[in-house]
Write a structure and sequence with these properties.
The protein is of the alpha/beta class. The protein has 2 domains: 63-178, Sandwich (Immunoglobulin-like); 185-443, Rossmann fold (3-Layer(aba) Sandwich), CATH 3.40.50. The chain has 8 helices and 24 strands. The strands form 6 sheets. It has an 8-stranded mixed sheet, sandwiched between helices. A hairpin with a 5-residue loop joins β6 and β7 (103-111). α5 (259-269) packs across α6 (287-298). The longest helix has 34 residues, at 16-49.
Length: 445
């Protein structure tokens, strides 16, 4: 047997048995050494990659799923990605062409979960054009090539291409966003033939008449509520989009607009067979909220409530001045800067405002309108809601890219709010309006 001493080994003369035993030992030593080397390599890989994950994950086979690939612009879309490597970065981009053919894009990166999946309704991006959990963030955060948008994105149907990429794998799908539903009709109206300018949007015929909206825009002029009215009809409610200045047959600016103009539109609307004449409401945003509240007050037999977005509780002058913005029976509709009375309003009122409205003090005016309705003992539902960090554009169509500034008459106005807060407010406001109209329809059932 061997002896250890002075760092050397001395052996007796070998026998055949010794030779056979030594050969077996050499085989076992080679085997044990190979196992030890493999174990060491595994340990090193574990330290380098963490949690035992392989150093080089296999190629991914991404699968993109879009729930709601075709629908109206106000409906949210649910986007998920599967087939990624656990913990890998998955980047999603969205792109769409606006009404002028200009391509808008957004991008957000996500960390795939333990199953290699990403769910935009549950996960916040780790970087990109928006932050926080937001199922529709890729849509409203799209930008034109020049950066933050300063103009509207679309007023008619469009297609969004969504692409997911991770570790060299790519997959894509499309989302069609519509403004008009199947069976919906539109009728153009003119001052010359009807006494007012606009378009009537009617949903597909239904069993009974439905509550209807007159929709008026603000100081931007033109017929700015055209697309919104189209979408209201897509939801099942007749909607009359009305232009009251800077359209044919009307003044070029917000000056001397007769409230009788809106009353004429209401009288015409209630005669339509699909309209519930007991529930014709008026929807107005910004300066249009003045027209809406004044009309609901002065013509309660024709207009039965108001929806007011970024509202004013006061009467303001012409834009640009001087002069009156609104008239009634040929005279001023109210002293400039004076409160709009509400004691004759004959239906529900909803007032919505963003707390960061930088154009004017719509939050306090929304509260004032509700308080005055309380003092007048108005028996109909009336509420005001404020949306934190949102600005003046709280009532726009949900999920569309939208500006936070506006240029008019050579001036650039800050509208306030963030695009993310505005988008969240817009979705809630549209749902609240739909809820009000559905309640009115149910009350008649």
């Amino acid at each position: 047997m061997g002896r250890w001493g002075n760092g050397s080994v001395e052996r007796d003369a070998p026998t055949k048995a010794d030779s056979d035993e030594e050969g077996g030992m050499r085989h076992r030593r080679r085997r044990d050494g190979a196992l030890a080397a493999a174990a060491a390599a595994t340990a090193v890989a574990t330290v380098v990659t963490g949690c035992g994950a392989p150093a080089n994950p296999p190629p991914t086979a991404l699968r993109l799923a879009i729930d709601g690939q075709s629908g109206p612009a106000y409906d949210p879309v649910h986007i998920t990605v599967a087939g990624g490597a656990p913990g890998a970065t998955v980047t999603l981009t969205a792109s769409a062409a606006d009404a002028r053919g200009v391509s808008w894009t957004s991008k957000a990166a996500f960390r795939a979960d333990a199953h290699g999946a990403v769910d935009l309704a549950r996960q916040a991006p780790i970087g990109g054009s928006y932050s926080g959990v937001d199922a529709m963030g890729l849509f409203w955060s799209m930008d034109p090539p020049a950066g933050d948008p300063t103009d509207a994105f679309a007023t008619s149907g469009f297609t969004v291409t969504v692409t997911a990429a991770s570790q060299g794998a790519t997959t894509r799908g499309t989302v069609t966003r519509g403004f008009q539903s199947a069976g919906e009709t539109v009728e153009p109206l003119t001052v010359a033939q009807n006494g007012f300018e606009g378009h009537l949007f009617l949903p597909a015929p239904r069993a009974k008449p439905a509550p209807a909206l007159i929709m008026v825009g603000g100081s931007e002029g033109g017929e700015s509520t055209y697309a919104a009215a189209m979408l209201m009809a897509a939801k099942g409610y007749p909607a009359l989009s009305v232009g009251y200045f800077n359209v044919p047959g009307t003044p070029p600016t917000l000056t001397g607009i007769p409230l009788e103009y809106f009353a004429k539109a209401a009288a015409w609307l209630e005669q339509q067979p699909q309209v519930d004449k007991q529930h014709v409401l008026i929807y107005g945003g910004s300066r249009g909220s003045e027209a809406a509240l004044l009309t609901a007050q002065d013509f309660p037999d024709l207009v039965h409530g108001a929806i007011l977005v970024a509202p004013s509780a006061k009467v303001w002058g012409a834009l640009p001045g001087p002069g009156d913005a609104w008239t009634l029976h040929g005279a001023s509709a109210g002293a400039q800067g004076g409160d709009i009375p509400v004691d004759k309003v004959s239906g529900p009122v909803q007032a919505f405002a963003g707390t960061d409205d930088k154009l004017w003090d719509s939050p306090s005016w929304a509260r004032q309108i509700t308080a005055e309705l309380d003092l007048a003992h108005n028996p109909h539902p009336h509420t005001d809601r404020e949306f934190p960090a949102a600005g003046h554009m709280v009532g726009a169509i949900p999920y569309l890219p939208l500006m936070t500034t506006h240029t008019q008459y050579g001036q650039t106005f800050q509208l306030g709010g963030t695009r993310q807060a505005d988008a969240a407010a817009q979705a809630q406001i549209w749902n609240a309006v739909f809820g009000l109209l559905a309640g009115l329809a149910g009350a008649e059932g």
